[in-house]
Amino acid sequence: MTPIGQRSPSVRISVLAAAAVGLAVSTYLALERWLPGGGGCIRGGLFDCTVVRQSGAARLLGVPVSVWGTLWFLAAGTLAVRRAPGWLALSLATPGLLFVLYLRGVELFALGKACLLCWLAGVSALAAGLPLVWEGIRPLRRRMRLLTLAGLATLGAVACAAPRFLPRHLFAAEGEPITLPGWHDVRRGEAPLTVSDLFLCDGARPVLVFVYDPACEDCHALANGLLGEERLNLFLTELCRVIVRLDDVLGSPLDAHVPRTPALLLYRPDGTLAGSLTGDIGEPEVLGLIGTALAR
Length: 296
Hints:
The protein is 54% helix and 9% strand. The chain contains 10 helices and 8 strands. Strands 3-6-7-8 form a 4-stranded mixed sheet. A two-stranded antiparallel ribbon has the order 1-2. It has a two-stranded antiparallel ribbon with strand order 4-5.
């Protein structure tokens, strides 16, 4: 494949310009947490940078995706000014573009919120990456080129749509209650409760809060003991994850906070209390509470 630096000056210029914009935005997002007031981003309606930036998808291998974006844009800009083989450009651009589409899918289908600056970085990545992809596949024969484009387009569609079908707890923010399909986060206005809210919303007592949907077949099956062992273990595991996060907030295990007894509150989607437990809360107590609520 012909090196990019020898093929098209217009490609080099467009990639370099888009990479420069993306680099500036990604660097800002990476440094935003240290800015006075946490920086600035449009909030309201569909847009909420906080929800997006605190979600489980905001990190990859423990590193903020904005840092990965910064490195990607640096690499793309380097390819634009140096003579790089087409296969190298294709190898860099493809995973970057697929990840960008995946993140946009997370915002649209899993979080229901969008980060305007993240979208600007995503558009910049598309503007920088698509020319690199084209330079990588242009030397191929026409038929192979079309097949490659079709394959990449299919992968892009799958990456964007995948978050819609993945378990929601994969995108839960640090400190956000974990729920199974059919269960909903307790909401106070538009903002989901955080671990600190869970701790404070019942005075001095640590509180675990779930909201159930009476139309959820899994909830009924759980209460009636019909779910398989794997499904039940998943429920109990997620419950334990919430307890562990409460431990982190309190600074010591829950059982050390006597007489600050843990409580589990079960709410209906309309916000009314369906039942509660205090004291020792185990599997029988949880299932009993759910069963009682569903029977009403």
